[in-house]
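Researcher: Re-running this chain for the archive, since the previous output was lost when a drive failed. Same request as before.
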Amino acid sequence: VHFRYKLAKGAVNAIFNFDEAFRDYKNAFPADPYKGRSKTIDVYGNFDLSEMFQLLAGVDYRHQKSIDENATPKNPTMNMVSPYASLHLRNAGGFFMEVGTRYNHHSKFGSHTTFSVNPGYTLNSNVKVFANISSAFKAPALSSLYGQWGANPDLKPERSSTFEGGVQASLFANRFNFRAVGFARNTKDVIIYGPSFTMINLDDQKDHGFEIEPTVKFNEKIRLALHYAYVNGEVHTVKEGKDTSYANLIRKPKHSTGFTGSYQITPRLFFSTSVFTYSSRTDVDFNSFPSEEVTMKGYAVWNAFAEYGLFSNKLKLFFDVKNITNTKYEEVWGYSALGVNFMGGLSVKF
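Model: Regenerated structure tokens:
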């Protein structure tokens, strides 16, 4: 439910969400059905203080309950109250910035304050540089603390700090667009599903990477978009009494590339094709005890899309085919992904 009241220089919003989930386990490991409920109330307002400053402020309340008579304690609950505010500076001679903070009071994990600072500068109408420095707090889920599968009531919340910076440019009469972003993130007490089938905290997780997205517009009909992403991370923890570090980003490729070419062949007929590649990834095989790390091979997927418009493009027929070469690959160890598959349909615009 969303309520909005518009002011002369801003607006006040109130949002209420209610969710209920039910899960029944049907496998070789007997377990009681799971039922959970969550409620969220978010009341906030945005106000134009002047031509240069805008304020956003509000308070967020979250309540969660796990309906589980066998848990300790029975039917566990948690709630969190989070007042927050951010000040946005704009129209300052090309410079813009947003500064925000949030105070989180958790019923189990106490008080934690987070912040974000997002400065940026527009060099001219075509080039923009930006940065983001922020912190975050993430409490363990009720199922991680008191659930039936590897729960650990002694888990600590995750706390992280992130730096991100980049540049965005539009050059040569908007025929060449370029975006590059790099990031570094440090997470304390990161939560994982441990090798002994129990949720645990690791000491320190460090992740970093970058993404490059150039786009070339050859003319009004032909466009080519490229991207390359690099992601890496390792954990620092104590193992067998010794400090150790090792790469641990499961299911995430270090390298991923792709291109999408599109061609507006006629005013009615549009065609695009794309190829995405992913390098090898590690995963965890839980069929053994303790679990073992495995390697999944890299793969490439080729897709295509076509669309034809009728009646001044108010009716469009489309055809979409994915994995044209029927590549065999796994995104999760032991679970095959879709082979060649396609769908067609129509869309109508009145």
